[in-house]
Every structure is written in structure tokens, then in C-alpha cells.
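Hello Y.,

Per our agreement to keep a running log of every chain we model this quarter, I'm adding this entry. I've kept the format consistent with earlier entries: sequence first, then predicted structure.
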Amino acid sequence: MESHPPSSPGPAHEAVLLREVIDLLSPGAGEVILDCTAGDGGHAAALGRALGEIGTVIVCDLDAGCLAQAAGAVRGAVAPGVNVVEINANYAEAPRRLVDLGLAANLVIADLGFSSRQMDDAERGFSIRRDGPLDMRYCPSGPTAADYVNTLPAGELEDILRDLGEERKARAIVSKILAAREEQPIQTTGELAAIVRAVVAPFGRNRTHKIDPATRTFQALRIAVNDELGNLDALLSAVTRQAAQRASGASGGWLAAGARVGVISFHSLEDRRVKQAYSTVAGRGCGRLLTKKPVEASAEEVARNPRSRSAKLRVLEFIS
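Predicted structure for the entry above:
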């Protein structure tokens, strides 16, 4: 499969809530770690280093460039006796892949944010401020954001912006998009951002918005193009089923007895799903919540890494 090469170096990507992830997941010698969304490898490397001399770190990422970066970072951080396994796949496939490998994870981390490496590469089409092809795919297969914008009926586009971006002016934005694509296809991030800004409000110095008015539209399209909520639902369903299996005393599966599963979300649509799934597991007596409320970044971390501002970490521990 064709893959995106790693982008040119930009500002270093900092793993969010790193200290909290290590404290709550508490890796031990000989354990198996699964990083579902390896990115640049920050969480996996730090957790793997905490394993000591032995153990296994599994890095999973749909983006082949990110996977290579993460695997290299982990191998450079862990002891020689720690095994590093690479899975080039969507994290929704991780449970099946672990079963195929004969591995059961003791701890899991899934950081649902996308990598700064992806954002900084204009050719990937994620950035509002860096003009490039309107792509937004984590891997180079399937329809792009340009395909969605230029071919979907008005009602479907409006639903995407309203439901996935929580954009209150979805109807007006879609109307503007339809008028623009009548003239010519919308092909770049700059073109789409300009269309949205013209509807919502001006942006910049002394303007109404502190964040770009196109942010919600871009978020909605990215989520739709990559089926992010569907993949999260699949992962959480697999966690819920495995928790029940472990609580019943059954063996086998992709998560070990007493497994700890952490998810870092960045908007309410994700966090709501994680909260509901974890509450279900705890309510059935199959696990306990290690975070009664989501853990958020400290003021110091937010000042150092603004990307952490909206991050929320929830951790569940299986009752084996």
C-alpha cells in the first residue's frame, strides 16, 4: 500500500498528559503495552522505558510515516530486552491483530488527537492555515475531504457539519459551499477555509474569533473522512466485551486480566462515548474507574503545549 513519507521536521510533537498516563497506567516489568495511536511515539516510548529490562511495546498507527517514527522512537528509548511490535492498521483492528499475534495487552493507551507531523504537512490537507490539497485522510485510500465537499448532497454535508463539528451555521456554510462548487470544484484547504470564514466571521487581529472560524468545519470533515467515531465505537465495544470475558474468568482474548485502558479525547463527541462505555463496564462489576472525572492538563502543561488544552484522559481497570 502506498504510504505518505514522513514530513519535514517541524516543532516537536509533545505527548499530552504524559506524566498522568504513566502514573495511572503504571507499567510493570514484563508487561505488554499497546499504543493504539502511536503518532510520534511519545506515550509508547515513555511507557516502554518504564517497563525496565523486559516486556513488549506494540505500536499501532494507520499512517505508515507516523508508525515508522513511533517505532524508531520506542526502540531508541527502551532496554534491549523489550520487544517492539509494529501494526500498520487502524486502531479498530488492533484487538484482532493482537489475537493473531498471540498477545494480550496489560495496558492500552489511545490518544485520539492527530499528530503535529500530520498538521504541519500542508500536503496532508489537515491544516487551516497551510494551504494544500483538501485531503484529510490518515492513509491514502478512500474518499478525500474534497470528494465529500464537492459531491455530497446538501443535507448530508449539513448533517456532518452540525453533528460532527457542532457548527451552528452549518446550513449557511453548506449553501455557500454549493454555490462555490457550481462554479468550480473546491480543491484546497485555503479555498474551503475562505468560504467558511466568509459565512461565520472575520478572523485575525482585532477580529471576533480567537480561533479560526473554519475550525469546526475542518474538524467535522476530518472525523467523517476517517470515520473516527465509528472506529472509536469499535474499540470501546471490544474493550467492553473483553472486560466481561475477564470478569467471568474466561481465558484468551486481546487484553490481560487486570488490564488498564486509557483514552485521551479532545472533544465532547469522543469523551461522551468513552465515559458511557467505561460506566457500563464499571456498572456491570467488570471493571473500576481509575478516573472518577476526566484528568485534564495542568496550567503549566497548557502554557507549554496549547494542544493539551482540550485533552481529557479517562482510565479503566479490569476486574479479573
